[in-house]
């Protein structure tokens, strides 16, 4: 019997190898768990591979480095958040309603996902010390600003504001800084920072960005 490239044998029986996309997804899920548990610096690729049930070689066949693995997590998280925000407000036609709805959604993420935001802050600090991390982080932040600017432009056009994404780069930067800053405040003193305060801060930026 001849086996295909996607099969191997176990006790004389064919066993289909996992698909590459399944391996990649499993590694990303395991990486997120490990990163959030012990931080970016302390995390090791062999620990991530073991958590996912694969060898360290599986990591390197999908990601060139720990930096690339974390950058992929950042990119996917950004794309998911932008898509979720648009879906949340797509049916809304009033500016104030759109602003409050989007701000509340983002604020919930800040308050309820503090381990993720702490991880992003750690990666940002590491970017200032490690040139390889810095290169990855800068590329991610530029992509994130561009995507946020596009997202803002898509909604702003509906309210009579400019619809050119280039117009919103500064607002995207301010929005990122606001979200990250509030995340740091929540992590440092969670009892003093409420979800409503975070919502109001984000809403102020969105209101300025989307108003015609």
Describe the 3D structure:
- There is one protein chain.
- The chain is mainly alpha-helical and 212 residues long.
- Helix content is 72%, strand content 4%.
- It contains 9 helices and 2 strands.
- A two-stranded antiparallel sheet has the order 1-2.
- A hairpin with a 2-residue loop joins strand 1 and strand 2.
- It is globular and about 55 Å long.
- The N terminus is likely disordered.
What is the strand content?
under 5%
Number of strands: 2
Q: What is the CA–CA distance across the termini? A: 69 Å
**Mean pLDDT over the full residue set:** 86
How many helices? The count is 9
Q: Using only CA atoms, what is the Rg?
A: 21 Å
Secondary-structure element pattern, one letter each: EEHHHHHHHHH
Q: Characterize the largest beta sheet: strand count, sense, and whether it forms a barrel.
A: 2 strands, antiparallel
Strand order of the largest sheet: 1-2
Estimate percent helicity. over 70%
Which word captures the global form? globular
Uncertain runs are: 1-10
What would you call the structural class?
mainly alpha
């Amino acid at each position: 019997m001849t086996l295909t490239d996607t099969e191997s044998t176990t006790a004389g029986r064919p066993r289909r190898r996992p698909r590459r996309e399944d391996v990649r997804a499993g590694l990303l899920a395991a990486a997120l768990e490990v990163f959030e548990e012990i931080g970016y610096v302390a995390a090791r690729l062999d620990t991530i591979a073991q958590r996912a049930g694969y060898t360290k070689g599986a990591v390197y066949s999908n990601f060139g480095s720990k930096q690339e693995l974390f950058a992929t997590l950042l990119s996917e998280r950004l794309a998911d958040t932008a898509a979720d925000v648009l879906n949340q407000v797509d049916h809304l036609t009033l500016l104030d309603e759109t602003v409050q709805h989007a701000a509340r959604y983002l604020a919930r993420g800040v308050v309820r996902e503090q381990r993720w935001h702490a991880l992003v802050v750690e990666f940002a600090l590491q970017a200032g010390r490690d040139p390889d991390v810095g290169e990855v982080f800068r590329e991610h932040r530029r992509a994130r600003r561009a995507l946020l600017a596009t997202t803002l432009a898509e909604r702003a056009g509906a309210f009579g504001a400019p619809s050119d994404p280039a117009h919103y780069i500064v607002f995207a930067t301010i929005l990122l800084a606001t979200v990250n800053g509030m995340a740091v405040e929540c992590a440092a003193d969670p009892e003093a920072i409420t979800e409503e305060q975070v919502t109001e801060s984000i809403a102020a930026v969105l209101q300025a960005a989307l108003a015609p």
